[in-house]
Backbone:
């Protein structure tokens, strides 16, 4: 099988955000992240590191209003980038899952690069803002934007936890590892689309 290049560059500009993103699925975890939302930068850096994805993100958003548009739109562009980089998805393992601890927190994640977007999310409500600024509900908004634009079936269950920072971190690390597992090439079927329908 010829070597494939799973690197993409994506840009998206709206009245609320201006985003440039570079992704190499087969990277080593190098990142340069600047979204104007420090905690989100931290989460995307973790995503890059633990998924072994090379990731550059530059986002200018209406953060003076709130962080919602920036977080959601980066999720959209990141999801679109994975979808484009994987192309027909030949040879990928397709599924990724695991249980991911972070101190007192445990998160369970399962996903399928099925081409049929879906998000099931279970997490606590009425959680305090992180650092007094980042609304914990934005984690779910990011997951929804990412899953629907990457066209993946994504299930995220925060089984238990108390610290919103720890819960967020376990989600982003677990998502990274699960996406990495699903997008790796299985040499046994490197030229095959992993579906009985022959399309994903």
Residues:
């Amino acid at each position: 099988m010829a070597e494939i290049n799973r690197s993409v560059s994506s840009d998206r500009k709206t009245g609320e955000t201006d985003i440039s993103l570079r992704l190499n699925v087969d990277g080593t975890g190098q990142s340069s992240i600047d979204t104007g939302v420090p905690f989100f930068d931290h989460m995307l850096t973790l995503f890059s590191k633990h998924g072994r994805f090379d990731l550059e993100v530059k986002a200018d958003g209406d953060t003076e209003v709130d962080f919602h548009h920036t977080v959601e739109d980066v999720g959209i562009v990141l999801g679109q980038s994975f979808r484009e980089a994987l192309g027909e998805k030949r040879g990928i393992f397709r599924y990724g899952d695991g249980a991911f601890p972070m101190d007192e927190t445990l998160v369970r994640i399962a996903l399928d690069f099925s081409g049929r977007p879906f998000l099931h999310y279970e997490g606590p409500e009425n959680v305090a803002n992180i650092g007094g600024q980042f609304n914990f509900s934005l984690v779910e908004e990011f997951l929804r934007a990412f899953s629907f634009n990457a066209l993946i079936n994504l299930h995220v269950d925060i089984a238990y936890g108390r610290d919103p920072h720890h819960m967020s971190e376990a989600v982003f690390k677990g998502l990274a590892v699960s996406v990495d597992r699903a997008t790796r090439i299985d040499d046994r079927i490197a030229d095959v689309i992993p579906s009985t329908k022959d399309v994903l």
Summary: Strands lie at 7-13, 17-24, 31-34, 54-61, 95-102, 105-112, 118-122, 153-160. The longest helix spans residues 164-183. The chain has one domain: 7-189.
